[in-house]
Fold:
Amino acid sequence: MYPMNLDTTPIMFNFDYATLRLIGLTPAIANQLHALASNFTEDHTLQAARITEIHRDSLVLHNGNTLLQARALPRLLDDLKSEQSNLAVGDWGLFIGSPENGYRFVARMPPLTHLARRNSKERLQPLASNIDTALLVMGLDNDFNLRRLERYLALVHAAGVTPVVLLSKADQHENAAARQAEVEQRLSANVPVFAINGLSLTNTDLLAPWMSAGQTLILLGSSGAGKSTLTNTLTNSAQKTNGVRAGDERGHHTTTSRSLHLCPGGACIIDTPGLRSLQLNLDEEALSASFADIDELAEACQFRDCSHQSEPGCAVRIAVDEDRLKNYQKLLRESQRIQQTPLDKIAARAKWKVLVRSVKERDSLKHPH
Structure:
Protein backbone atom coordinates (compact mmCIF):
# COMPACT_ATOMS: atom_id res chain seq x y z
CA MET A 1 0.00 0.00 0.00
CA TYR A 2 1.33 3.40 -1.00
CA PRO A 3 -0.46 6.41 0.58
CA MET A 4 -0.43 9.35 -1.81
CA ASN A 5 0.53 12.58 -0.04
CA LEU A 6 -1.88 15.09 -1.50
CA ASP A 7 -3.22 18.35 -0.16
CA THR A 8 -6.75 16.93 -0.42
CA THR A 9 -8.20 13.70 0.98
CA PRO A 10 -5.45 11.05 0.86
CA ILE A 11 -6.03 8.03 -1.35
CA MET A 12 -4.43 4.61 -1.31
CA PHE A 13 -2.66 3.12 -4.31
CA ASN A 14 -2.48 -0.65 -4.06
CA PHE A 15 0.63 -1.45 -6.12
CA ASP A 16 2.80 -4.58 -6.15
CA TYR A 17 5.61 -4.39 -8.72
CA ALA A 18 6.54 -8.10 -8.63
CA THR A 19 2.96 -9.22 -9.22
CA LEU A 20 2.25 -6.71 -11.97
CA ARG A 21 5.49 -7.63 -13.74
CA LEU A 22 3.84 -10.95 -14.58
CA ILE A 23 1.50 -9.06 -16.94
CA GLY A 24 4.15 -6.90 -18.60
CA LEU A 25 4.96 -4.13 -16.11
CA THR A 26 8.20 -2.25 -16.75
CA PRO A 27 9.85 0.57 -14.75
CA ALA A 28 8.67 3.12 -17.33
CA ILE A 29 5.06 1.94 -17.02
CA ALA A 30 5.31 1.84 -13.21
CA ASN A 31 6.39 5.49 -13.16
CA GLN A 32 3.49 6.50 -15.38
CA LEU A 33 0.96 4.59 -13.27
CA HIS A 34 2.17 6.33 -10.10
CA ALA A 35 1.92 9.70 -11.85
CA LEU A 36 -1.61 8.83 -12.98
CA ALA A 37 -2.63 7.85 -9.45
CA SER A 38 -1.26 11.10 -8.02
CA ASN A 39 -3.87 13.03 -10.02
CA PHE A 40 -6.75 11.50 -8.06
CA THR A 41 -8.23 13.37 -5.11
CA GLU A 42 -11.27 11.19 -4.35
CA ASP A 43 -11.30 8.89 -1.35
CA HIS A 44 -10.73 5.59 -3.15
CA THR A 45 -8.31 2.70 -3.05
CA LEU A 46 -6.80 2.63 -6.54
CA GLN A 47 -5.42 -0.52 -8.08
CA ALA A 48 -3.39 -1.02 -11.25
CA ALA A 49 -4.43 -3.46 -13.96
CA ARG A 50 -4.08 -4.24 -17.63
CA ILE A 51 -6.90 -4.73 -20.12
CA THR A 52 -6.84 -8.27 -21.51
CA GLU A 53 -10.18 -8.28 -23.37
CA ILE A 54 -12.74 -5.70 -24.49
CA HIS A 55 -16.41 -6.54 -24.93
CA ARG A 56 -19.30 -4.34 -25.97
CA ASP A 57 -20.22 -3.17 -22.48
CA SER A 58 -17.47 -4.54 -20.25
CA LEU A 59 -13.73 -5.08 -19.89
CA VAL A 60 -11.64 -7.97 -18.63
CA LEU A 61 -8.79 -6.72 -16.42
CA HIS A 62 -5.78 -8.57 -15.03
CA ASN A 63 -4.20 -7.28 -11.82
CA GLY A 64 -1.31 -9.74 -11.84
CA ASN A 65 -3.19 -12.23 -9.69
CA THR A 66 -6.53 -12.79 -11.35
CA LEU A 67 -8.96 -11.72 -14.05
CA LEU A 68 -11.70 -9.25 -13.16
CA GLN A 69 -14.82 -8.07 -14.97
CA ALA A 70 -15.15 -4.28 -14.98
CA ARG A 71 -16.95 -1.39 -16.63
CA ALA A 72 -15.21 1.66 -17.98
CA LEU A 73 -16.15 4.97 -16.38
CA PRO A 74 -18.43 6.80 -18.89
CA ARG A 75 -16.51 10.03 -18.37
CA LEU A 76 -13.28 8.25 -19.33
CA LEU A 77 -14.85 6.93 -22.55
CA ASP A 78 -16.17 10.39 -23.39
CA ASP A 79 -12.75 11.94 -22.86
CA LEU A 80 -11.10 9.34 -25.09
CA LYS A 81 -13.75 9.82 -27.77
CA SER A 82 -13.11 13.57 -27.80
CA GLU A 83 -9.44 12.73 -28.50
CA GLN A 84 -10.50 10.35 -31.32
CA SER A 85 -9.19 7.45 -29.27
CA ASN A 86 -10.54 4.46 -27.38
CA LEU A 87 -9.49 1.70 -25.02
CA ALA A 88 -7.44 -1.18 -26.43
CA VAL A 89 -6.22 -4.58 -25.28
CA GLY A 90 -2.83 -4.05 -23.63
CA ASP A 91 -3.80 -0.71 -22.07
CA TRP A 92 -2.68 -0.09 -18.50
CA GLY A 93 -4.77 1.89 -16.08
CA LEU A 94 -6.40 2.23 -12.68
CA PHE A 95 -9.55 0.67 -11.32
CA ILE A 96 -11.62 0.89 -8.13
CA GLY A 97 -14.30 -1.24 -6.51
CA SER A 98 -14.89 -4.57 -4.83
CA PRO A 99 -16.38 -7.99 -5.64
CA GLU A 100 -19.58 -6.95 -3.88
CA ASN A 101 -20.06 -3.58 -5.63
CA GLY A 102 -18.33 -4.34 -8.92
CA TYR A 103 -15.22 -2.81 -10.50
CA ARG A 104 -14.82 0.38 -12.52
CA PHE A 105 -11.90 1.23 -14.80
CA VAL A 106 -11.39 4.92 -14.05
CA ALA A 107 -8.17 6.00 -15.82
CA ARG A 108 -6.05 4.90 -18.76
CA MET A 109 -2.30 5.41 -18.80
CA PRO A 110 -1.21 7.06 -22.07
CA PRO A 111 0.21 4.11 -24.03
CA LEU A 112 3.94 3.94 -24.71
CA THR A 113 3.19 2.34 -28.10
CA HIS A 114 -0.14 2.02 -29.84
CA LEU A 115 -1.23 0.12 -32.96
CA ALA A 116 -4.29 1.38 -34.84
CA ARG A 117 -5.73 1.13 -38.33
CA ARG A 118 -8.41 3.03 -40.22
CA ASN A 119 -11.71 1.23 -40.78
CA SER A 120 -13.94 1.41 -43.87
CA LYS A 121 -15.30 4.76 -42.65
CA GLU A 122 -11.73 6.07 -42.25
CA ARG A 123 -12.10 6.21 -38.47
CA LEU A 124 -9.25 5.05 -36.26
CA GLN A 125 -9.72 1.58 -34.80
CA PRO A 126 -7.35 0.61 -31.95
CA LEU A 127 -5.65 -2.77 -32.27
CA ALA A 128 -3.47 -2.95 -29.13
CA SER A 129 -1.33 -0.84 -26.80
CA ASN A 130 2.02 -1.06 -25.04
CA ILE A 131 3.55 -3.55 -27.45
CA ASP A 132 7.29 -4.27 -27.63
CA THR A 133 7.41 -6.79 -30.48
CA ALA A 134 5.04 -7.68 -33.32
CA LEU A 135 5.19 -11.26 -34.59
CA LEU A 136 4.01 -10.98 -38.21
CA VAL A 137 2.68 -14.42 -39.12
CA MET A 138 2.33 -15.38 -42.79
CA GLY A 139 1.58 -18.91 -43.97
CA LEU A 140 3.70 -20.62 -46.61
CA ASP A 141 0.52 -21.67 -48.40
CA ASN A 142 -1.93 -19.47 -50.28
CA ASP A 143 -1.56 -16.91 -47.50
CA PHE A 144 1.89 -15.94 -48.83
CA ASN A 145 1.67 -12.28 -49.89
CA LEU A 146 4.71 -10.01 -49.71
CA ARG A 147 2.77 -6.81 -50.38
CA ARG A 148 0.49 -7.48 -47.42
CA LEU A 149 3.49 -8.31 -45.26
CA GLU A 150 5.06 -4.93 -46.14
CA ARG A 151 1.78 -3.28 -45.11
CA TYR A 152 2.00 -4.92 -41.68
CA LEU A 153 5.64 -3.85 -41.40
CA ALA A 154 4.70 -0.25 -42.14
CA LEU A 155 2.05 -0.40 -39.39
CA VAL A 156 4.42 -1.63 -36.68
CA HIS A 157 7.41 0.48 -37.73
CA ALA A 158 5.27 3.62 -37.54
CA ALA A 159 4.28 2.71 -33.96
CA GLY A 160 7.88 2.14 -32.86
CA VAL A 161 7.31 -1.60 -32.41
CA THR A 162 9.98 -4.19 -33.27
CA PRO A 163 8.88 -6.56 -36.08
CA VAL A 164 9.73 -10.26 -36.39
CA VAL A 165 8.46 -12.16 -39.44
CA LEU A 166 7.31 -15.75 -38.92
CA LEU A 167 6.63 -17.90 -41.98
CA SER A 168 4.29 -20.53 -40.60
CA LYS A 169 3.52 -24.05 -41.86
CA ALA A 170 7.15 -24.59 -42.88
CA ASP A 171 6.66 -28.28 -42.12
CA GLN A 172 4.02 -28.43 -44.88
CA HIS A 173 6.01 -26.60 -47.56
CA GLU A 174 8.59 -28.47 -49.62
CA ASN A 175 10.79 -25.44 -50.20
CA ALA A 176 10.44 -23.34 -47.07
CA ALA A 177 14.11 -22.32 -47.05
CA ALA A 178 13.83 -20.79 -50.53
CA ARG A 179 10.71 -18.88 -49.52
CA GLN A 180 12.49 -17.59 -46.42
CA ALA A 181 15.41 -16.40 -48.56
CA GLU A 182 12.95 -14.65 -50.89
CA VAL A 183 11.41 -12.74 -47.98
CA GLU A 184 14.81 -11.84 -46.52
CA GLN A 185 15.99 -10.49 -49.88
CA ARG A 186 12.84 -8.39 -50.27
CA LEU A 187 12.78 -6.84 -46.80
CA SER A 188 15.17 -4.62 -44.91
CA ALA A 189 18.14 -6.52 -43.50
CA ASN A 190 17.28 -5.58 -39.89
CA VAL A 191 13.98 -7.54 -39.88
CA PRO A 192 14.45 -11.12 -38.58
CA VAL A 193 12.68 -13.79 -40.67
CA PHE A 194 12.06 -17.36 -39.48
CA ALA A 195 10.31 -20.32 -41.10
CA ILE A 196 8.47 -22.23 -38.36
CA ASN A 197 6.10 -25.03 -37.47
CA GLY A 198 3.61 -23.39 -35.12
CA LEU A 199 3.19 -26.60 -33.10
CA SER A 200 6.88 -27.03 -32.35
CA LEU A 201 8.07 -26.35 -28.81
CA THR A 202 11.38 -25.12 -30.28
CA ASN A 203 9.59 -21.84 -31.05
CA THR A 204 9.97 -20.88 -27.40
CA ASP A 205 13.76 -21.05 -27.69
CA LEU A 206 13.74 -19.42 -31.13
CA LEU A 207 11.78 -16.39 -29.87
CA ALA A 208 13.44 -16.21 -26.45
CA PRO A 209 15.28 -12.92 -27.24
CA TRP A 210 11.89 -11.17 -27.57
CA MET A 211 10.09 -13.01 -24.75
CA SER A 212 11.87 -12.04 -21.56
CA ALA A 213 9.87 -11.13 -18.44
CA GLY A 214 7.96 -7.88 -18.82
CA GLN A 215 7.90 -7.99 -22.65
CA THR A 216 4.64 -7.79 -24.59
CA LEU A 217 4.22 -9.29 -28.05
CA ILE A 218 1.35 -9.18 -30.52
CA LEU A 219 0.53 -11.67 -33.26
CA LEU A 220 -0.64 -10.12 -36.53
CA GLY A 221 -1.61 -11.87 -39.74
CA SER A 222 -4.45 -13.28 -41.82
CA SER A 223 -7.06 -15.75 -40.65
CA GLY A 224 -5.70 -19.27 -40.80
CA ALA A 225 -2.06 -18.16 -40.75
CA GLY A 226 -1.53 -20.02 -37.46
CA LYS A 227 -1.59 -17.21 -34.87
CA SER A 228 -3.75 -19.04 -32.33
CA THR A 229 -1.77 -22.26 -32.80
CA LEU A 230 1.45 -20.38 -32.07
CA THR A 231 -0.16 -18.63 -29.09
CA ASN A 232 -1.11 -22.02 -27.64
CA THR A 233 2.47 -23.26 -28.11
CA LEU A 234 4.11 -20.23 -26.51
CA THR A 235 1.68 -19.80 -23.62
CA ASN A 236 0.61 -23.39 -22.88
CA SER A 237 -2.98 -22.21 -23.31
CA ALA A 238 -5.74 -23.99 -25.16
CA GLN A 239 -7.38 -21.52 -27.51
CA LYS A 240 -9.65 -23.00 -30.15
CA THR A 241 -7.96 -23.38 -33.54
CA ASN A 242 -9.31 -24.19 -36.99
CA GLY A 243 -7.71 -25.28 -40.22
CA VAL A 244 -8.01 -23.47 -43.53
CA ARG A 245 -10.79 -24.07 -46.06
CA ALA A 246 -10.09 -27.03 -48.31
CA GLY A 247 -10.93 -25.19 -51.53
CA ASP A 248 -8.69 -22.13 -51.33
CA GLU A 249 -6.66 -22.60 -48.12
CA ARG A 250 -8.14 -19.40 -46.69
CA GLY A 251 -8.54 -19.23 -42.95
CA HIS A 252 -11.59 -19.38 -40.76
CA HIS A 253 -11.99 -16.60 -38.17
CA THR A 254 -11.22 -18.78 -35.14
CA THR A 255 -10.15 -15.83 -32.97
CA THR A 256 -12.97 -13.28 -32.90
CA SER A 257 -11.49 -10.69 -30.54
CA ARG A 258 -8.12 -9.54 -29.27
CA SER A 259 -6.97 -11.14 -26.02
CA LEU A 260 -3.86 -11.05 -23.84
CA HIS A 261 -2.22 -14.28 -22.65
CA LEU A 262 0.61 -14.96 -20.20
CA CYS A 263 3.74 -16.94 -21.04
CA PRO A 264 5.55 -19.16 -18.53
CA GLY A 265 8.70 -17.03 -18.81
CA GLY A 266 6.93 -13.80 -17.88
CA ALA A 267 6.16 -12.31 -21.31
CA CYS A 268 2.66 -11.50 -22.55
CA ILE A 269 1.20 -12.27 -25.97
CA ILE A 270 -1.80 -10.57 -27.57
CA ASP A 271 -3.57 -12.77 -30.10
CA THR A 272 -5.69 -11.01 -32.71
CA PRO A 273 -8.35 -11.95 -35.27
CA GLY A 274 -7.26 -11.99 -38.88
CA LEU A 275 -7.63 -8.57 -40.48
CA ARG A 276 -9.62 -8.61 -43.72
CA SER A 277 -8.23 -5.20 -44.59
CA LEU A 278 -5.46 -3.05 -43.20
CA GLN A 279 -5.79 0.60 -44.07
CA LEU A 280 -2.80 2.33 -42.52
CA ASN A 281 -2.81 5.51 -40.51
CA LEU A 282 0.62 7.00 -41.14
CA ASP A 283 2.34 9.90 -42.86
CA GLU A 284 5.12 9.80 -45.44
CA GLU A 285 7.85 10.02 -42.81
CA ALA A 286 6.45 7.04 -40.91
CA LEU A 287 6.11 5.05 -44.12
CA SER A 288 9.78 5.68 -44.91
CA ALA A 289 10.77 3.71 -41.81
CA SER A 290 9.65 0.50 -43.53
CA PHE A 291 11.23 1.41 -46.86
CA ALA A 292 14.54 2.80 -45.64
CA ASP A 293 16.36 1.16 -48.57
CA ILE A 294 14.36 3.28 -51.03
CA ASP A 295 15.09 6.47 -49.09
CA GLU A 296 18.81 5.72 -49.02
CA LEU A 297 18.99 4.87 -52.72
CA ALA A 298 16.99 7.99 -53.63
CA GLU A 299 20.00 10.09 -52.57
CA ALA A 300 21.80 8.80 -55.67
CA CYS A 301 18.98 9.60 -58.11
CA GLN A 302 19.79 12.11 -60.86
CA PHE A 303 16.85 14.31 -59.89
CA ARG A 304 16.21 15.45 -56.32
CA ASP A 305 12.41 15.16 -56.72
CA CYS A 306 12.60 11.82 -58.53
CA SER A 307 9.32 9.88 -58.31
CA HIS A 308 11.11 6.61 -59.26
CA GLN A 309 8.74 6.00 -62.16
CA SER A 310 10.19 7.03 -65.52
CA GLU A 311 12.92 9.58 -64.79
CA PRO A 312 16.38 8.88 -66.26
CA GLY A 313 19.18 8.15 -63.81
CA CYS A 314 16.87 6.70 -61.13
CA ALA A 315 19.01 4.70 -58.69
CA VAL A 316 15.94 3.23 -56.98
CA ARG A 317 14.47 1.48 -60.04
CA ILE A 318 17.84 -0.15 -60.77
CA ALA A 319 18.30 -1.66 -57.29
CA VAL A 320 14.84 -2.22 -55.75
CA ASP A 321 12.52 -5.12 -56.54
CA GLU A 322 9.92 -3.83 -59.01
CA ASP A 323 6.95 -5.15 -57.04
CA ARG A 324 8.32 -3.73 -53.77
CA LEU A 325 8.68 -0.31 -55.42
CA LYS A 326 5.11 -0.45 -56.78
CA ASN A 327 3.83 -1.36 -53.32
CA TYR A 328 5.74 1.54 -51.77
CA GLN A 329 4.24 3.95 -54.30
CA LYS A 330 0.75 2.58 -53.62
CA LEU A 331 1.16 2.99 -49.85
CA LEU A 332 2.57 6.48 -50.41
CA ARG A 333 -0.55 7.48 -52.36
CA GLU A 334 -2.74 6.11 -49.55
CA SER A 335 -0.73 8.07 -47.00
CA GLN A 336 -1.05 11.29 -48.97
CA ARG A 337 -4.79 10.76 -49.33
CA ILE A 338 -5.20 10.24 -45.58
CA GLN A 339 -3.29 13.46 -44.84
CA GLN A 340 -5.58 15.49 -47.11
CA THR A 341 -7.90 17.98 -45.45
CA PRO A 342 -11.59 18.04 -46.51
CA LEU A 343 -10.83 21.08 -48.68
CA ASP A 344 -7.91 19.24 -50.30
CA LYS A 345 -10.22 16.32 -51.14
CA ILE A 346 -12.83 18.63 -52.66
CA ALA A 347 -10.16 20.33 -54.77
CA ALA A 348 -8.77 16.95 -55.89
CA ARG A 349 -12.23 15.72 -56.93
CA ALA A 350 -12.88 18.96 -58.84
CA LYS A 351 -9.53 18.65 -60.63
CA TRP A 352 -10.29 15.04 -61.54
CA LYS A 353 -13.72 15.97 -62.92
CA VAL A 354 -12.17 18.68 -65.11
CA LEU A 355 -9.58 16.19 -66.39
CA VAL A 356 -12.21 13.56 -67.22
CA ARG A 357 -14.40 16.14 -68.97
CA SER A 358 -11.48 17.35 -71.14
CA VAL A 359 -10.64 13.78 -72.13
CA LYS A 360 -14.25 13.17 -73.16
CA GLU A 361 -14.33 16.40 -75.16
CA ARG A 362 -11.13 15.47 -77.02
CA ASP A 363 -12.51 12.03 -77.70
CA SER A 364 -15.73 13.45 -79.12
CA LEU A 365 -13.74 15.71 -81.49
CA LYS A 366 -11.70 12.77 -82.73
CA HIS A 367 -14.76 10.57 -83.21
CA PRO A 368 -17.70 12.86 -84.18
CA HIS A 369 -21.06 11.20 -84.68
Q: What stands out?
A: The first strand starts at residue 2 and ends at 4. The two ends are 88 Å apart (CA to CA).
